[in-house]
Design a protein that fits this description.
The chain is α+β, with helices and mostly antiparallel strands. It has 13 helices and 16 strands. It folds into 2 domains: 309 residues, BirA Bifunctional Protein, domain 2 (2-Layer Sandwich); 59 residues.
C-alpha cells in the first residue's frame, strides 16, 4: 500500500486553503446569524436504521458503515437535512424556527471526475414551520445573498418544482421505482434514456411528449407559458402558478437577475415536496448550492414540520474562488522575536506580551542571520531580538 496517498474523494486542507475556508465559514455564519438562525450540531455518528429504514431512506451503498461495541450498525452522517429534521422533530418544542449548521457529511459512493467528494463540508439553513410562496421566495433570495457573501458573483440559481413532474406523470400509471428512474434521466438531461423508459413502460401520447420536453424547459419567465401548453393536469398547473408567485416576489426583492427556471431540475420525488433549486457558478461549472422544500422529512421522525432550506458545499466554493483569483493570502505575523541562546525566557516574555495585545508573534531560535531571513520570508512587520541587554527592535 502507498501510505502517502488518501482514499478517493477525500482531501487534505493545506494552510492557505484552510485560512480561506475559515474566512468563508465566518462570512456565512454571520449571514445565518443576522437572518435569525440558531445553530445546531448533529452527531457525526448515527444509527444505520435512522437513514436506511425510513420512507426517505438513503441507499445503503452510499453510507459509511461500522459496528458499535454492542453489535449495532452505525453510519457516518450521510445527510445533514435529515439529521436536522430528526433534531427538530424529537428534541425541539418550538418547531417554527430557523436552524443553521456547518458540518461534514460522508458519502461512500466514489462518483467520477475531479469534483467527486466523499467527505463534504457543508454550511446550510433549514427554515422550519414555514409554508407558502413568500417562504420559498425568501429562501431563494437568501441563497443569493449567501452566494454573494461567499465571494461569488458570476452565478445563477436554477429553480424548479417537483410538483410539475409529478403532475405530468399522474395519469401515466408508472410505479414508484420506474418514476424514480425516469426522474433521474430527466434530471441528468438524458432524453434518450427517458424516451426508452417511457416506451418500455407503455407511456405515450401527450404525457410522454410533455415529460420528454422537460429538459428543454429552462430560461426566464417565458418558460411558464411553454410549460402550460404541455398539460391540463391540475397538480402540474398548480406548480407553475406557485413558481409564478415566487418569481413575482423575487422581482420585488431585486434578486431575479440571479434566478432562472429549469423544470427539468427534478430532484428526489420522495425527499422533496415543492420547489427545488441549485446554485451554479461559471468558475466551476458544477453545483455549489442545493436546496428545496421538504415538508415531509420530519414525518419520518414522528412530527409533521413543513420546511425549506439549502446547503452550500464549502470546498467547491473554495475551488470556484481559487479559479476566479479570489483567494486571500494569510496575513503575515506582526513580529518575529529572535531568541539568542541564554535569552529564551526574555524572548518568550516578549512573545506573551505581544499576543496579549492581540498581535501575532513568532519565536525563532537559531543564528542571527538565519533569523532575519526567516522573518523576511514571512513578511513580519517588526523584528525583535532578545539579548543580554533586553529586547531590541531591529
Amino acid at each position: 500500500m502507498n501510505f502517502h496517498k488518501l482514499p478517493a474523494g477525500v482531501q487534505d486542507v493545506l494552510p492557505g486553503e484552510y485560512y480561506n475556508l475559515s474566512l468563508l465559514e465566518e462570512r456565512l455564519k454571520e449571514k445565518f446569524r443576522l437572518a435569525g438562525c440558531r445553530f445546531v450540531q448533529s452527531s457525526a455518528l448515527e444509527y444505520y436504521d435512522t437513514f436506511a429504514e425510513i420512507r426517505n431512506r438513503i441507499p445503503q451503498g452510499n453510507m459509511f458503515k461500522m459496528t458499535d461495541g454492542d453489535g449495532a450498525l452505525l453510519v457516518l452522517r450521510p445527510d445533514m437535512t435529515l439529521a436536522v429534521s430528526r433534531i427538530a422533530a424529537t428534541k425541539l418544542r418550538d418547531t417554527r424556527v430557523r436552524l443553521a449548521y456547518v458540518g461534514e457529511v460522508w458519502n461512500s459512493a466514489e462518483g467520477t471526475g475531479n469534483l467527486s467528494q466523499r467527505e463534504v463540508l457543508q454550511a446550510g439553513v433549514e427554515f422550519l414551520g414555514e409554508e407558502g410562496a413568500f417562504s420559498d421566495a425568501r429562501i431563494i433570495a437568501f441563497a443569493v445573498e449567501c452566494m454573494r457573501a461567499a465571494g461569488l458573483d458570476d452565478f445563477t440559481v436554477d429553480v424548479g418544482h417537483v410538483g410539475f413532474f409529478k403532475g405530468l406523470l399522474s395519469g401515466a400509471g408508472l410505479g414508484e421505482a420506474d418514476a424514480e428512474r425516469l426522474r433521474a434521466c430527466i434530471d441528468a438531461k438524458d432524453t434518450i434514456g427517458a424516451a426508452m423508459l417511457l416506451k418500455n413502460s407503455g407511456v405515450g401520447g401527450r404525457a410522454a411528449e410533455a415529460v420528454q420536453a422537460l429538459p428543454s424547459l429552462f430560461g426566464g419567465e417565458e418558460v411558464f407559458a411553454r410549460a402550460e401548453r404541455l398539460t391540463d393536469d391540475v397538480t402540474a398547473l398548480g406548480a407553475l402558478e406557485h413558481l409564478k408567485k415566487v418569481h413575482a416576489l423575487l422581482k420585488q426583492f431585486g434578486c431575479d437577475k440571479y434566478v432562472s427556471f429549469d423544470l427539468g431540475t427534478v430532484k428526489s420525488l420522495s425527499y422533496y415536496s415543492g420547489i427545488v433549486f441549485t446554485g451554479l457558478t461559471k468558475a466551476l461549472g458544477a453545483p455549489v448550492l442545493s436546496g428545496g422544500r421538504y415538508d415531509m422529512l420530519a414525518d419520518d421522525f414522528g412530527k409533521h414540520i413543513p420546511a425549506v432550506g439549502f446547503a452550500m458545499g464549502l470546498k467547491r466554493i473554495l475551488m470556484a474562488l481559487e479559479r476566479g483569483g479570489k483567494m486571500q493570502a494569510p496575513p503575515p505575523p506582526y513580529a518575529v522575536v529572535l531568541a539568542k541562546e541564554g535569552c529564551e525566557a526574555a524572548a518568550y516574555a516578549e512573545y506573551r506580551k505581544l499576543t496579549a495585545e492581540g498581535k501575532t508573534a513568532d519565536l525563532y531560535t537559531g543564528g542571527y542571520e538565519e533569523g532575519l531571513e526567516y522573518a523576511r520570508a514571512r513578511g513580519a512587520r517588526v523584528v525583535l531580538a532578545a539579548t543580554e541587554k533586553g529586547v531590541e527592535k531591529i
